[in-house]
Write a structure and sequence with these properties.
Helices cover 37% and strands 17% of the residues. By secondary structure, the protein is α/β, with parallel strands linked by helices. It has two domains: 210 residues, 2-enoyl-CoA Hydratase, Chain A, domain 1 (Alpha-Beta Complex); 194 residues, Alpha-Beta Complex (2-enoyl-CoA Hydratase, Chain A, domain 1), CATH 3.90.226.
Length: 511
């Protein structure tokens, strides 16, 4: 056969590349119950859709070239449910997937194609950090920061990152730049490993303390979701991408509306307590309003006094921002502000309308908030809100007090506002208002107190706002789903094929 030796060499090199770190390392991973890099690609991508880029890349250093198949990062392009994506899967069996000259060239190429051609970028992270001695000394300085836009993010297309093991160096940086981050419990993300960190701070620290799932999802908020297995990580990426367009210049995909989607909204009045001081879980309201089984909550464990969730209404993607009285009475703290701002940026950057469900007693005041720069976070939120060009629809459910009225898209900060009949638009609880405004306490003069409280409630009712045409509608809570669907039908028509102006596209990815 012609070219027999060349074909034989091709087959041998292919086998070496596909063997990854070797049978022993692959067997060890399997015993731990974790997928290897190529198995992760097989699970995530449509069958036979992966086109690898850089299979035969190896380290440029002679002393390690023989043990760096694909240089520790498997990269290329594939399809998820028929849609093209760009993807990089770190191969920890090859030198800990450490970052070096050649594999960083691979990442750069795939990332550039994703941005230029409008493909979602998926990063399956697991890395030991920078490869040494490659990046040490003056020679190492010559290969670092050769791409001045390496950490630029203009949100041309969605980025997803999965933390699926030890994640230091590039896996950390790209996760901090991504629109969606999911991690497997037991994985770690930090700037440097616990060993390095312990030496630097002269104090022993465990991996979980440094960058475990509880810290990242509940305290720093850098991770959107934690799951139990590699497979669940990959399923979460599939689901997240199903709500988003492939790139910023197209509307999100539409799906068929599941049967029975209208039924739950009929039971909304059973969820909302009659007493405004009684708590409830607003996520039940979101699920009742949205298409059946379509709610995908982000940052569930972070800033819990407000819920941010992707969902669908009439088969079309929307973003819900809903105060949750179950936590802190729904009062907004520093974490809640940061959570909402990042969600606003996500939705507006990828042409997803926003729905605000309001039941807020105001901002959580106190020394802790001031120490965390709370005023700046409040105004960050407001600044982002003013730059949104997608439709913003507000439903005032119960309490809507103080400055939070503005942040929760009150007044001219929304395209349409509807109130439920029980909406209360005071500056604070009416009973407290009577005490503050008139100096009257119930125990001192019950009749006078009741009279003044009724007066305050008349002035702050949904009907008063509707009479001034500061709310365009007062609706039966059970009509909320149909109201939102119909309202969004009108407001989507005024966009360029459902595409906004993306004024927030270069907003910081974490701050």
């Amino acid at each position: 056969m012609a070219y027999e030796k060349l074909i034989e060499e091709f087959n041998q090199r292919t086998q070496k590349a596909m063997a990854m770190g070797g049978p022993e390392k692959l067997a060890k991973r399997k015993a731990q119950g974790h997928l290897n890099a190529r198995e992760r690609l097989d699970y995530l991508l449509d069958p036979d859709s992966f086109m690898e880029s850089g299979r035969f890349a190896r380290s440029n250093r002679e002393e390690v070239k023989h043990k760096t198949p694909s240089d520790g990062k498997v990269a290329g392009f594939g399809r998820i449910k028929g849609r093209e994506v760009a993807i990089v899967a770190n191969d920890f069996t090859v030198m800990g997937a450490s970052s070096a000259v050649i594999n960083m060239k691979k990442i750069k190429h795939v990332k550039q194609i994703a941005c230029k051609r409008g493909l979602p970028l998926v990063l399956l992270g697991e890395s030991s950090g920078a490869r040494m001695p490659d990046r040490m000394g003056s020679a190492g300085r010559a290969i670092i920061a050769q791409d001045p836009t390496e950490y630029q993010r203009l949100r041309e297309s969605p980025w997803c990152s999965a933390l699926m093991g030890q994640c230091y160096g590039s896996s950390t940086w790209y996760s901090a730049m991504s629109d969606f981050v999911v991690m497997r419990k037991g994985a770690i993300m930090a700037i440097a490993s616990p060993n390095v960190t312990s030496i630097a701070i002269n104090k022993a620290i465990s991996a979980e303390e440094l960058g475990g799932w509880k810290l990242l999802t509940g305290i720093s908020g850098l991770v959107d979701m934690a799951v139990d297995s590699d497979e669940q990580c990959l399923e979460a990426i599939k689901r997240f991408l199903s709500y988003l367009p492939s790139h910023a210049m197209q509307p999100p995909p539409e799906v068929e509306v599941p049967e029975g989607s209208d039924e739950a909204s009929e039971k909304i009045l059973e969820i909302i307590p009659e007493s405004r001081n009684q708590v409830y879980d607003v996520r039940k309201i979101v699920r009742a309003v949205a298409d059946k089984d379509s709610v995908f909550e982000l940052k569930e464990r972070y800033g819990k006094s407000i819920t941010t969730a992707l969902a669908r209404l009439d088969g079309k993607s929307v973003g819900f921002i809903a105060n949750n009285p179950l936590y802190k009475g729904g009062a907004l703290d520093a974490d809640a502000c940061q959570k909402v701002t990042s969600f606003i940026v996500l939705c507006d950057s990828f042409n997803i309308p926003l729905v605000f469900l309001v039941d807020v007693p105001g901002f959580l005041i106190g020394v802790e908030g001031e120490l965390r720069g709370m005023p700046g976070k409040v105004i960050n939120w407001m600044n982002a809100l003013t730059l949104v060009t997608m439709p913003k629809i507000t439903v005032m459910m119960r309490k809507n007090y103080g400055q939070a009225f503005i942040n929760m898209a009150g007044g001219k900060n929304a395209d349409e506002i509807a109130c439920w009949p029980m909406a209360d638009l005071g500056f604070m609880d009416p009973a407290v208002s009577v005490n503050v405004l008139y100096g009257v306490k119930f125990e001192d003069d019950p009749e006078r107190f009741k009279e003044l409280k009724a007066q305050v409630e008349r002035d702050t009712s949904a009907w008063g706002l509707a009479e001034l045409y500061e709310a365009q509608n007062v609706i039966d809570p059970r009509q909320t789903r149909q109201y939102l669907i119909r309202t969004l039908e009108i407001h989507r028509l005024r966009l360029k094929n459902g595409v906004g102006e993306h004024l927030l596209r270069n907003w910081p990815t974490s701050y």
